[in-house]
Amino acid sequence: MASGIYLQGYEHNINNISSRLASWVNFMHLKELKESNLSNIRVDNSLSKTGTAIFIEGCVNNTISNSMIAYADQGIYANSYLSTEGLLVNNTTIAFVNKAVNLDESTFVSINNCILDFITNRGVYATLGKNLVVSN
How far apart (Å, rounded) are the C-alpha atoms in residues 122 and 5? Predict the structure, then answer.
């Protein structure tokens, strides 16, 4: 699966990353990532709204903050192959996507102070998970 950035491991701090109109399948692929922070991420994937901006599988206790995600099929997608636990999405704008945040079997997810704008299908879609908090 073609990804612009593939991350795996512990305690990464990823700041100030930008991609404009690159048509990634997944701009960022986070697999088994633990205790990491992603901030100031800017992704404008494709005007045709294809691909996923941030694809997450099997990650634990990570933060996505102060970011802008636009023009993708899915903004943030945590799949069910490897369940994700402990995800904080904070102060992030997700716009012009079909699904802003898609969570399969994800637990302890908090979405705070985010703007979900011009969403064509669902803002937050969660299946088979627990402890989801959406506020402000």
Answer: 25
For residue range 25-62, what is the model confidence (pLDDT) as tens digits?
Answer: 899 999 999 999 999 999 987 777 888 999 999 999 99
Q: How far apart are CA 97 and CA 41, in angstroms?
A: 16
- Encode pLDDT of 86-100 as tens digits: 999 999 999 999 999
Q: Rounded CA gap, 35 and 125, in Å?
A: 24
Residue type, position 41, single letter:
I
In the chain, count of helices (H) and strands (E)? 0, 13
72: nearest Cα among 121, 35, 130, 1? 121
Query: Which residue has 């399969």 as its token pair?
Result: 104
The β-bridge partners of 56 are: 30, 78
Q: In whole angstroms, what is the distance from residue 1 CA to residue 12 CA?
A: 22
